[in-house]
Design goal:
Blueprint lengths: L18 E12 L11 H13 L7 E7 L2 H10 L6 E4 L10 E4 L3 E8 L13 H4 L2 E9 L2 E9 L12 H18 L5 E7 L7 H9 L3 E2 L42 E7 L3 E10 L17 E9 L9 H26 L3 H4 L4 H43 L1
Parallel strand pairs: 1-2, 7-8
Antiparallel strand pairs: 1-12, 2-4, 3-4, 5-6, 6-7, 8-10, 9-10, 11-12
Helix pairs in contact: 4-5, 4-8, 6-8
Protein name: sphingomyelin phosphodiesterase
GO molecular function, one term: sphingomyelin phosphodiesterase activity
Family: Belongs to the neutral sphingomyelinase family.
Length: about 400
């Protein structure tokens, strides 16, 4: 349920005046379970985030948030900052919730979400992505007489880059994300996509999003991009200056990773990036160094120009088949064992637990082999055929 209230709407006409639009995004890392299962210092960090959002120097027009897994945390934030950000929306999805939300100084006139067709595996309980129901959420924000499509998303985590089991799912999500933005933003005056993509700039998923949705990366378009930067400028995750970063991850990425993005597209209103930088990093006035999250935030300031912009110029399927055959073979073996041990409990009561485990594993293997992996294969096939059509159209 969206938490919304009325506020005074700033007028923005299509005159020759230029206006600024400022947006920020942050992965809050707010898993509500107690540490070490949940997120460390969650309540303290949420409270400090509320203070930061309410501060005078925090002048964002829109803020998008990810990993707010508890709706109560979102409602607390929305209530505490309602005077400054009277419009808000939480995107509901999955078993635990999508974790994605938006707060805005301007009216949110409509919302829409798309749940990704592939999002990990149900039996990977230790990961939790499947239960979260990862989505891309859209909020149509009205700024005066302008309609702005704001998107926020959180894609499947990588976990192990050297042996990335979830790469096909994340690629599929990137493609669906790009298509969703492309087809739902046609009536917008300009478009902004934000969130934790869990992909790096050189990854295939990044190029799918940028090229299919025809978006520009605000970090790459910042005015001072050629100037010397600090050691880990622009990096948003696994930063060496983040107190939640494990020392082991710094061996492969000593400067951190750029996983969070603000992308944009000019439509009937021209956009020029005036500034793009990290935000919501280290919490000030703390006895011991602490960050708002295990991610740094990212913010961008756009100059909105009233004049119109000029126009800018099957491995996983095979693995899925193998997995399905393995699960089905296991299913038949276990079924044979089950039949062979139908009456064993009466003769050997102490084998009840063993028989129960065999029955459970055989039932799961049957379900995952016939249903789970079939769903995965069809989703990958749909992504493949749809991407093939786009490639044919542009070649």
């Amino acid at each position: 349920m969206a938490a919304e209230s009325k506020s005074q709407n700033s007028s923005l006409t299509s005159s020759n005046e230029n206006h600024f639009f400022k947006i920020a995004t942050l992965n809050c890392w707010a898993i509500p379970q107690p540490w070490p299962i949940g997120s460390k210092h969650r309540k303290l960090r949420i409270g400090k985030l509320i203070e930061a959002l309410g501060a005078c120097e925090c002048n964002y027009d829109v803020v998008t948030l990810q990993e707010l897994w508890s709706e109560d945390d979102f409602l607390l934030i929305a209530h505490q900052v309602a005077e400054k950000y009277p419009y808000s929306h939480y995107f509901h999805s999955g078993f635990t919730g999508s974790g994605t939300a938006i707060i805005s100084q301007y009216p949110i006139t409509s919302t829409l979400l798309h749940r990704y067709s592939l999002n990990g595996f149900a039996h990977h309980i230790h990961r939790g992505d499947w239960f979260g129901g990862k989505i891309v959420g859209m909020a149509e924000v009205t700024i005066g007489d302008l309609k702005v499509s704001i998107y926020t998303t959180h894609l499947h985590a990588e976990y192990n880059r050297k042996n990335d089991l979830y790469l096909p799912h994340r690629i599929s999500q990137c493609y669906e994300l790009a298509q969703f933005v492309r087809h739902t933003s046609l009536g917008a005056d300009f478009v902004v996509l934000t969130g934790d993509f869990n992909i790096e700039p050189n990854d295939l998923g990044y190029h799918l999003v940028v090229n299919i949705a025809q978006l520009s990366d605000a970090w790459e378009c910042r005015p001072n991009r050629d100037a010397p930067e600090s050691f880990c400028a622009g990096m948003t995750c696994d930063r060496p200056d983040n107190c939640f970063t494990s020392p082991s991850v710094l061996k492969d990425s000593p400067q951190g990773k750029r996983l969070d993005y603000i992308m944009f597209q000019s439509r009937r209103v021209g956009l020029e990036v005036k500034e793009c930088k990290n935000c919501f990093g280290q919490i000030e006035s703390m006895d011991k160094p602490m960050n708002y999250s295990d991610h740094d935030g990212l913010c961008a300031t756009f100059l909105m120009k009233a004049d119109p912009p000029t126009e800018s110029s099957s491995d996983r399927r095979s693995q899925s088949s193998v997995d399905r055959r393995l699960f089905l073979a296991l299913c038949f073996i276990l079924f044979a064992l089950l039949v062979a041990t139908l009456n064993i409990e009466s003769s050997f009561p102490y084998l009840f637990v063993v028989v129960a485990i065999i029955r459970f594993v055989s039932t799961f293997s049957l379900w995952h082999g016939f249903i789970g992996l079939t769903i995965e294969m069809k989703a990958l096939k749909e992504t493949k055929f749809s991407m093939r059509k786009i490639l044919r159209a542009i070649t």
